[in-house]
TrEMBL record:
GO MF: monooxygenase activity; oxidoreductase activity, acting on paired donors, with incorporation or reduction of molecular oxygen
Annotated protein name in UniProt: FMN-dependent monooxygenase
Keyword tags: Flavoprotein, FMN, Monooxygenase, Oxidoreductase
Domain Luciferase-like: 27-391
Amino acid sequence: MTQPKRQLHLGLFLFSTGYHPAGWRLPEAATDGAFDPKFLHRVAQRLEEAKFDFFFLGDALATSPDMQHTFPSQMVRLEPFTMIANIAAVTEKIGLIVTANTTYSEPYTIARQTASLDYLSGGRLAWNVVTGMDVRAAQNFSREKHWDNSKRYDYADEFVEIVQQLWDSWEDEAFVRNKESGEFVDGSKVHRINHEGEHFSVAGPLNVARPPQGQIPLLNAGTSERSRDLGAKLSSAVFSGQILLEVSKQFYAEIKSKAVAYGRNPDEVFILPGLVPLVGRTKEEAHDKYRELNSLLVTNYDVTPLSARIGIDLSGYPLDGPLPDLSLSVLPGDEVKWLVSLAQRAEGHEDITVRELFHYFAATSRGHLLIVGNPEEIADQMEEWFVERAADGFNICPPYMMGGIDLFIDLVVPILQRRGLFRSEYDADTFRGHFGLSRPENRFAKRAALQGVGE
């Protein structure tokens, strides 16, 4: 049987004010999109017109005005389950990813909410599983302290297992709805899960029927060993944050290898790095926009984090002077050289200053690759990462809105389509369908069938 040709998967990671910290300050940029339903509808419908795989909503459970100059788009935003329900009503095909935190939720509640949204969206939902990194969240949920990584993932492992069992607690054939006999459901096909574990006691069944997709796809992100294991074991897609091709290739190979070790098909685990495409109709236009964005940064130019990142103390170097000798770095490998190379490409010249390296670091401090260039240059780098097996697709993070995503859709996507790298039409209408994933068999029905064979 001939395997279908591998194609890119594209989604949008919503930063309502743009990924660049100063993106909202551009004259043409939106500033209040996070709370404007018309803006959110326009974004989702624009993505659907371009045949994107998904629209992704992140979430956080704490905030502070101190974030306004570094993460303004993450400072305040709508609750994702409510927002996705609204977006589902104005779209038909695009996948919808909702973020839910296992550390501060209950499995039964998340199972109900996700199953309900899968119905409301017609089978287009996926769940981004997070355990939470912000220690301030504990104070908002009556906790004395935020749990460490190990405890959070122990909790998450059990949490996800319960949710998946609850999704299966109603078999597909459970509903009889026989008006003549009066039988509405076949009770033998509705199951208690009777989970008794270290952290949870959940009887079930769920009071929502099995979701349209059977099992709602899981996604996750993170760099810790536990997050990588979770992704390889359970996720349909893993979001990554590498900015270097070789590092991303290593991450890609590691997750695929771990998936095989868990008995999974590695082609059913998709690696999706974050990508910040700053597109200009010409190279010069792109570089001008990049410099304009950086000129709007509100910063005191504290180089301490950048110094740690490159392994060279920059505090004694003038901001507008040349970079020090990179061989002075105390860090092993060539990562520092690669980071400087990316900053040079973004600026459009090699003799960059400490200030210009700081600007690139500030624009990418959340770990996603920023590419500045004309449409062909952006498409070329995306294709390189795809062909080199550093990515199966990308989680697009526009540097500003709406122009950042409009230019990408209007100028870059057609190039990817002409090269045969990205779809021109949808051939499915569920999240699983967009990724070529089959609907899994119900675990209780499968168990009953196996018992029947053995009798």
